[in-house]
């Protein structure tokens, strides 16, 4: 089934079931008022949501037209957003540009950071920043929402806890990150509010593209209407979602509704760094990667970070070309207090 | 007023108003089912809670005996837990022990990290860890809960957004932190679930001890029944809460219910490092600080981190010797999956 959270003026929005083709929705708030409420009691509520989704497919329940811009992020606020960095190609490139090697441990010990989860931005609302010189960048990712995960869970338990899959735009302020990371406490200012796709789907909706741990489809990233990234999320993912989840649960339990991100999707090209889409490559899922490759190749980054007015669109289509999650589409806007 | 969340088998517990002397409570769930619900709509609900608190003081409403061990952390799960490190004495000591200077920026730019907030531990339940060699430590802190804070809020706006004050035990796994911080993404495994005091109070309950930004009272930390720390939370706090909140809100808004921590309370002694309580000093609010001072003075840390069975108690009393928030009291227990 496919679920969305419709904006209704409340902090958590209203739960809706969306048709497979994303054209229609039916109110699901009589089953659970919000997506978090459904996740809090998933075993009891999910079967009813699934039955409602089936009825919607058959037009057997009242429905209305689904507009992606009326959707909030599926969880408008969450109790946890922990974002991995599972595509080591990207990590390695960034370090290479800085002239430092990859520690060997990175191959076996995933990177993950604790993100802010109290104020996500709806997928069709602007990225707001006070200052363009902060180096505003998008990061296109796949994310999963999990059920309760016990402390010390192994990968099998982690896999069994995956309830929903969606897309993420993990906005990053590249200009603020180096000084922040140098302080040693991780990201804070460098990671403003993220956004998630209009629709979150249960893994069974993904068919063979979902292997239980990775999503094998290209992540479509367009910048100002032009192809920027077409990296396949199933390729070069060095840690799959169960590995990321188990890693996150090593010293504490994860509560239902925890969102785990893949990190910026990134594909190698014949073992080497990628190429822009326009040059026949898979492109990039963030501007920083393109800049790193430019720096490595020419000594200087030439692609600028986002300007006010720029627009990024992140989407994924099934093998028949149909949008699975709806699109994140965000313009960059100057924030005036 | 004083608020608590009573355990009732649900994820968020049930909101209660507690009497000033912590002996009685009255159910407040007819006003707002949970503390988060009250914070979501504070301007409307707080006056009713205050009226109920006043009635409770006069025994004008039904009440029952308040038992601290029946309380959950005031927010059993929260949308954000951002923990500062506002007592630079501690930061400086840790760095000195590592042989590195304090960057000048630390004096003007607060340290803060994004903590996990999905699964707090009740204040009278054990700290569970799978492995004693992880270097289990407590960190006794003061924390505030804020209302919505706009992106870019200044210190005055931040101060006006403080709704509740409480105590925190920010459990740390010292053995896991160095390798984790070396990865550059901040804390994750090193910071398992935190706990908060049984009771959260509005700032007006603190009288002159609260100056709008700092809480000027000793933080009482006992380890296995013996005095370990008596540091005054109002002394040597280099960034007050409004400064920490404004810092946290620099690039994104903070949602109502966000918890901001002070970091480990730490007092200098005559400009130098502190002394144990037994030697006439203010002692320490975590074991790591005592170990750092031992290392600086003798070349070797001798106080061990927590063993299974150890018990830490964190409390604060008003000038008349009455407990303000109730006590966090946690034994360390081996976690068996």
From TrEMBL, chains A, B:
Fumarylacetoacetase N-terminal domain segment(s): 1-77
Annotated ranges, domain Fumarylacetoacetase-like C-terminal: 87-331
Family matches, as SUPFAM superfamilies: FAH
InterPro entries: FAA_hydro_N, Fumarylacetoacetase-like_C, Fumarylacetoacetase_C_sf
Stored Pfam families: FAA_hydro_N_2 (PF18288), FAA_hydrolase (PF01557)
GO molecular function, one term: catalytic activity
PANTHER family assigned to the protein according to its UniProt record, in alphabetical order: BLL6422 PROTEIN, FUMARYLACETOACETATE HYDROLASE
Name this polypeptide is given: 2-keto-4-pentenoate hydratase
């Amino acid at each position: 089934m496919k679920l969305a959270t419709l904006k209704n003026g409340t902090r958590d929005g209203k739960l809706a079931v969306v048709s497979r083709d994303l054209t229609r929705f039916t109110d699901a708030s009589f089953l659970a008022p919000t997506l978090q409420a459904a996740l809090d009691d998933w075993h009891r509520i999910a079967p009813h949501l699934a039955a409602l989704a089936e009825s919607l497919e058959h037009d057997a329940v009242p429905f209305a037209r689904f507009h992606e811009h009326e959707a909030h992020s599926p969880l408008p606020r969450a109790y946890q957003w922990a974002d991995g960095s599972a595509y080591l190609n990207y990590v390695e490139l960034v370090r290479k540009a800085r002239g430092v090697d990859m520690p060997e441990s990175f191959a076996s010990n995933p990177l993950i950071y604790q993100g802010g989860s109290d104020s996500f931005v709806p997928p069709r609302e602007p990225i707001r920043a006070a200052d363009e010189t902060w180096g505003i960048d998008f990061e296109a990712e796949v994310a999963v929402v999990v059920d309760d995960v016990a402390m010390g869970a192994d990968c099998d338990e982690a896999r069994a806890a995956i309830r929903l899959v969606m897309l993420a735009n993990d906005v990053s302020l590249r200009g603020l990150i180096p000084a922040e990371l140098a302080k040693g406490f991780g990201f804070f200012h460098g990671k403003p509010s993220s956004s998630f796709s209009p629709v979150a789907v249960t893994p069974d909706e993904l068919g063979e593209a979902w292997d239980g741990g990775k999503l094998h489809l290209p992540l479509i990233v367009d910048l100002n209407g032009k192809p920027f990234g077409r990296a396949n999320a199933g390729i070069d993912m060095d840690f799959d979602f169960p590995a990321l989840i188990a890693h996150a649960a090593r010293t504490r339990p994860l509560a239902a509704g925890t969102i785990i991100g893949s990190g910026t999707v990134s594909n190698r090209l014949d073992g080497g760094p990628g190429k822009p889409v326009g040059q026949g490559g898979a492109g990039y899922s963030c501007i920083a990667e393109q800049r790193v490759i430019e720096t490595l190749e020419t000594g200087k980054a030439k692609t600028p970070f986002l300007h006010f007015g720029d627009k990024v669109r992140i989407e994924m289509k099934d093998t028949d070309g149909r949008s699975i999650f709806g699109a994140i589409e965000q313009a960059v806007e100057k924030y005036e207090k």
